[in-house]
Amino acid sequence: MTNRLAEAKSLYLRKHAENPIDWWSWCDEALATARAQNKPIFLSIGYSSCHWCTVMEGEAFSDIAIAHYMNANYLPIKVDREERPDLDSIYMQALQMMSGQGGWPLNVFLSPEDLVPFYAGTYFPVDPRYGRPGFLQVLQSLRRYYDTEKQDLQQRKALIIESLHTSAVLQDGTTDELEDHELLRQGWETSIRVISPSQSGNSFPMIPYAELALRGTRFNFESGYDGKQVCTQRGLDLALGGIYDHVGGGFHRYTVDATWTVPHFEKMLYDNGQIVEYIASLWSAGVEEPAFERAIAGTVQWLKREMTAPEGYFYAAQDADSFIEPTAVEPEEGTFYVWSYSELQQLLTPEELAELQQQFTVTPNGNFEGRNVLQRKNSGELSATLETTLSKLFSARYGVSSESLETFPPACNNHQAKTVNWPGRIPSVTDTKMIVAWNSLMISGLAKAAGVFQKSSYLELAAQAANFILENQFVDGRFQRLNYQGEATVLAQSEDYALFIKALLDLQASNPEHKLWLEKAIAIQDEFNEFLWSVELGGYYNTSSDSSQDLIVRERSYVDNATPSANGIAIANLVRLALLTDNLDYLDLAELGLKAFRSVMHRAPQASPSLFTALDWYRNSTLIRSTTEQIKALIPKYLPAAVFAITSDLPEGSVGLVCQGLKCLAPAESVEHLLQQVQKSQNRG
Fold first, then answer.
1. DSSP 8-state class, residue 288
2. Alpha-carbon torsion 57, 59, 64, 69, what sign?
3. Which of 211, 240, 510, 670 has the fewest CB atoms within 10 Å, measured from its CB?
4. What is the pLDDT of residues 294-340, one digit of tens each?
5. Which tens digit of pLDDT belongs to each residue from 251-296?
């Protein structure tokens, strides 16, 4: 017997279709039913590749006693955060206000009449353990509280909604504002601290911080940090660590240790796009480490083989867990990726195993539950014999050689994973939905890598995905966020607009002759401005003016999380568009956007590195006008605040014009003179 979620398009929602809980999706009918029946709403938000979401689905949400009580006393609603990041953002902020921490699954209890939360938590076990109460006990206590403590309930909700509104408005409490260059220094130094090596805790890529840290190295800020060394180390940790899949390519989500060894094994498209762009930027900044080029090449091969739909777009994610064998009841984390020592002994010759142990973390006892996650011990180029060894491991995992495996079809759900006759190991489930924002991050990464390494195949892959979005993601003239097997759905949110416009501008930067990308970016920016710009406050709302009726507050995203903030990216886009079009209206909006968030940048620079990147663009933006040949030579260089415009109308005897802000410098008479002007323009101090 299935519930309503059996008809959902979301893989995450369908995973709950056989729960005894009478789940609803978030919709007007569900909200109206809760009000009519005076039932508090139990809102549960997660995503397909979330490990603890999967655990709770198999435990508490499958428990008959819990389901019976839930169905009688609550209106249960399931939301995929990847479908509705706006809802997720609001209620995650509420959880953080209540508990001081966040995470998924996000479980929130709402009053039906106003959708204001009065309690929230993350994972709830069936029975009391891990210092957490049993879920049925929580449900009973909260229903009793809802029914009997009305005055306290109203006071509690009033505090929460006031805090949410205050946070959304961002009232400026700054009295001592910093000059732009000093504010940039503060943001840079904060980001350097964030990505400096740590001795404890999990290790996350934190790419928005790394990106700002790398940009700031050109300013030579007075500081106790060697910025270039810290940025390089972050690249090495990513390219050499267990977070990178050295056999099959692609980056995992994060590692559970400070040494970058054992990952949480899910692979998210958004991480891979950002990491590829960052490592390519490091290379262009002069850190030409062979491991960087190898990691990018391997990631692109993984992307083409496992994450690209026949139509050209990129899938969203691959789960951390997979089944050891078809008869297994539950999947286990990392089984697709790790190696027992005995298995390596069977697959490799003694000489091959010895070399593998010299260069990678391989021991008889392993480093993850008795098995081995491969982590490189040294930078540099791998030997031909070691590459052959890794190819053998690829064949063992996939059941076929890497040379002959162009496409590895996804397992779209657990049933498919267990019933297909895979030639090698049973793969993790792939979430095959198309998300515009995440595809955009990958397009930007590919465009950057294409320019730096002069790889036309990277650019073709990026253009293919961009064209799919342009041709398929508009319904009745409006931009859509998601695509499920050919059906575009859910109005685009600020991150979709901002990141796709950036992707189009990045494609333009890697191929300035192709004017289509700029034309499309301008058209989508017009829609973005019309439906999401805040005239009263400045900056962009998360949701459009005609699709925010079910939100208790209308937020403007400025905090960088696993993905960069929409407003940070959007403001940088506006500066780039102003340079490329000579339309100063874009620059006016950028100025208003930075003004809207300046107090946040001053008070909490650790929250918003992307806003500081936008400030860098605003303060140091540089337009380079030159010939096709000359610009092609400039594309691989690290010019983080520059845009290119091809022109044949140059002053006689010059090789190019460098314009900064609203003025142009004297015509450059040589390539050396041009580069000197560009470097100086990008560091106007």
1. -
2. negative
3. 670
4. 999 999 999 999 999 999 999 999 999 999 999 999 899 999 999 99
5. 999 999 999 999 999 999 999 999 999 999 999 999 999 999 999 9
Rounded mean pLDDT of the chain?
Answer: 94
Cα distances (Å, whole numbers) of residue 526 to 167, 185, 360, 437, 522: 27, 33, 51, 18, 6
Give the DSSP letter string of 84-150. Answer: -HHHHHHHHHHHHHHHS---SSEEEEE-TTT--EEEEES---SSSBTTB--HHHHHHHHHHHHHH-H
Q: Please, which residues have CB within 8 angstroms of residue 197's CB and are 6 or more apart in sequence?
A: 230, 233, 237, 258
Other beta carbons within 10 angstroms of residue 391's beta carbon come to 14
Taking the C-alpha atoms of residue 497 and residue 313, their distance in angstroms, rounded to an integer, is: 17
Which stretches of 149-285 are DSSP H helices?
Answer: 150-169, 180-195, 207-216, 227-240, 269-284
- pLDDT tens profile 160-197: 999 999 888 886 545 456 788 899 999 999 999 999 99
Arithmetic mean of pLDDT, 4-8 = 95
Q: How far apart, in whole angstroms, are the C-alpha atoms of residue 444 and residue 612? A: 19
Name residue 25's amino acid: S
Cα gap 345→366, rounded to integer Å = 13
For 578-587, the CB contacts below 8 A with 24+ separation are 578/621, 579/621, 579/622, 579/623, 579/643, 579/645, 579/659, 580/505, 580/508, 580/518, 580/623, 580/643, 580/645, 581/518, 581/522, 584/662, 586/525
Between the CA atoms of 58, 483, 504 and 277, what dihedral angle is there, to the nearest 10 degrees?
20
Is residue 624 within 8 A of residue 632, CB to CB? The reply is: no
d(CA 608, CA 618) in angstroms, rounded, equals 16
> For residue 86, how many C-alpha atoms fall within 13 Å in the half-sphere facing its CB?
27
CA proximity to 193, closest of 571, 609, 505: 609
- Measured at the CA of 585, the angle between CA 583 and CA 590, to 5 degrees, comes to 115
Please state the pTM of the whole predicted model: 0.95
Beta partners for 657?
625
HSE at residue 355, side-chain half, CA atoms within 13 A, is: 13
* DSSP one-letter code for 475: E
CA pair distance 461, 445, nearest whole angstrom? 11
**41, 73 contact by CB (below 8 A):** no
CA distance 145 to 125: 21
> Can you give the C-alpha Rg of the chain in angstroms?
26
Q: What is the pLDDT of residues 519-550, one digit of tens each?
A: 999 999 999 999 999 999 999 999 998 888 88
CA distance 400 to 410: 16
SS3 181: helix
Q: Decide the pairing of beta strands 622-626 and 487-491.
A: unpaired
The amino acid at residue 115 is L
Side-chain half-sphere CA neighbours of 579 within 13 A:
28
Put residue 157 in one of left, alpha, beta given phi > 0 → left and psi -120 to 50 → alpha: alpha
Q: Take residue 615 and report the two structure tokens written for it.
A: 């400030």
Task: Give the span between the Cα atoms of 295 and 155, in whole angstroms.
Answer: 54
Cβ neighbours, 10 Å, residue 265:
26
Beta partners for 263? 255
pLDDT at 572: 98
Cα angle 88, 92, 98 (rounded to 5 degrees) comes to 155
What is the per-residue pLDDT for 685?
A: 61
Cα–Cα–Cα angle for 408, 411, 413, nearest 5°? 170
Is 378 within 8 Å of 359 (Cβ atoms)? Answer: yes
Q: Which helix (H) or strand (E) holds 72?
A: helix 64-73
